[in-house]
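tool_call: predict_structure(chain=1)
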Amino acid sequence: MPKGRPERASAPSQAARQRIRVRGIVQGVGFRPTVYRLATERGLAGWVLNDAEGVLLEVEGPSARIAEFLAHLARDPPPLAAITAVETEDVPPRGETGFQIRPSAGGEREALVSPDVAVCPDCLRELLDPADRRFRYPFINCTHCGPRYSIILDVPYDRARTTMRTFTMCRACRAEYEDPADRRFHAQPNACPACGPQLALCDAAGRPVATADPVRAVREALLAGRIVTIKGLTGFHLAADARNDAAVGDLRRRKGRDQKPFALMAGSLEAVARAALVDEAERRLLESRERPIVLLRRRPDCGISPLVAPRSGRLGFMLPYAPIHYLLFEGDFPPLVMTSGNLSEEPICREDEEALQRLAGIADLYLLHDRPIQTVCDDSVAVVQRGRPLLLRRGRGHAPRPLALPRASPVPILAVGPELRNAVCLVRGRDAFVSQHVGDLKNALAAAYFEAAIEKLERLLEVRPAVIAHDLHPAYLSTRYARRRAERDAHGVRLVGVQHHHAHIASVCAENGLEGDVIGLAMDGTGYGTDGTVWGGEVLRASAERFERLGRLEGVPLPGGDAAIAHPVRTAWSYLVQAFGPEAAEAHRVGAVAEVSAEDRRPWTDMIARGLRSPRSSGLGRLFDAASVLAGIAAENTYEGQAAMELEAAAEGEPDEAEPYPFALRDPGAKDGAAWAIETGGLVRGLVADLERGAGAGPVAARFHATAAAMLCEAARRARAQTGLGRVALSGGCFANDRLVRLAAAGLEADGFQVYVHRDVPPGDGGVALGQAWVAAARLRAEGEA
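tool_result:
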């Protein structure tokens, strides 16, 4: 049925009429066709349209049928829809006898944009059906799947406001697009081989390669050990045969990625299960429409090159999500490294010319296409923790789907996040839009991407923030951005500074709908404290509005500051000096510290003794680093968290019931304010004694994890004795560690605590912006209520 042509309905007797506003992710997901079908099946008259607020409709007919219509719409919406509100009002009947789908209208922008999702089963069947007109067409999609956020230019979500606007639909595609009974009705990226985007193959110099089948040429090149850039749904990947040591080694060298694990893609769940252990929760996560990279325990005989994930007990696998992936993996094609198309620590490429320039010298071939990507998104990364999914990186499939806050913010808020693993958050009412992963803002390209992500969220949501929340660290680029913007904004933007670890705990509270005070265990590497020192292992009494530092991990000097984070052997030496004294520490140099010459250690000892360029850090992440170095597991952090992750991997297979090393809680000293400290000297001495007795790295790593969990449980008990609180929120990058969470949560729950963790935002710095926004909103509400 062409758009706008009324479908006949029987004349209603004793008719009622309702105007219905539906908010949420309801555009570009087949919502209007569903409304049309449900209304016409029940003989209801009226109309439905998209506008900037979502979907607006009116239905007329017997009251019982209208109630049935609303119940069915709420119970069985389209697969990609996410309804956040349905508002109804009675209006006078008009005596209409048909139902129409009307053209889109304007209004105040409140519509939500769907994330990009995997190709649906119906499209996949057509893709592989030789009788279908879209057989092997790599851009097949419908209203239930395909690109959304990556191609949208503006709202309402219509083809003219997407990067598909340059492709004119052929007669067959136009007929589908205009037929409310077709699942491609108003599928904005709708196309076919006759009228849609096309693949192109280029060589390393960017010159076109003549081939009748670009996909077959790429498959042959990959099997021959070549590296291929593949333009996908939301950005570019670099692909290589994951079994081929030479190819993976070349990719590492060319990309400048020394040891950080690569992501993998396999063509089927069976192929993944041949390389990694997959339980039922992990299977559901792999096969979800978001198709994240899922961290799985590797099999000893996995067949994957050891260079893919050196010294890691896990492999990060994802399944195909774009039609091009299914074509690449036809048959029993081997797993591929499928890593982001960039140099190490840069954002992924967005445009073809950009990829040809930035990836020159890395790729041997480029598989491109002519559908522009408007917004790039890294692949999301997830893990199953205690039987439930946990996002470690928020990207494709999740951004920009909003999270619901416990209460509405009184004004729009922008939270600009931290310096590393940055993501931003824009709050409108109760909706918190956490952006895709942005990255390390010290990188110039990531800094530009940061501003572009903010601009797009504000434009799509048509929100100008009245408040900008930021980290307290004055040198962070995100903080400097907030201040520059406040200075130049003629509307008087207000700045709200939020301490890093308070934001961590507030993000757990926002995500779990918690109000009031909780005990917050904020455990990460570093964060700027209110006293100007480096915090990182914090025990807080926190609400959204305020926090109090109850306790902390004992601080240790970091000789060289950031150099000690990159080279944790310095941190390990500092812990030895603190535990044994500078002279006795010489006799207890174990692990990687034993390989450092006296000449190299001497300046570290001097810096520690004199307090020169040696900021004290209470970070639990730094203690993990030191333990990894002392156990001989790691010596460098070539990527963030490397030493800690390798320590966790070393404990894999060891029993959870390891005996903790000794530790103690020390009452506040003169320099501590009101905060007590968790002393680490006993732990370090016990760990060193184990190693000197010949204990292996695995048992030592297991005992260290047991000790860290025991410390957290004892800290929570001390905090409960002080405050009477029984709710504990866990946040910070250390809680990406599955073993630590498993042990700590079990111990806390056995002690009667209610334990709250992250699920939809990362526990690391990728979740900080949500916490910043929730703190700012709470402070504004408190001021309004005062």
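agent: The CA atoms of residues 201 and 691 lie 55 Å apart. Proceeding to next step.
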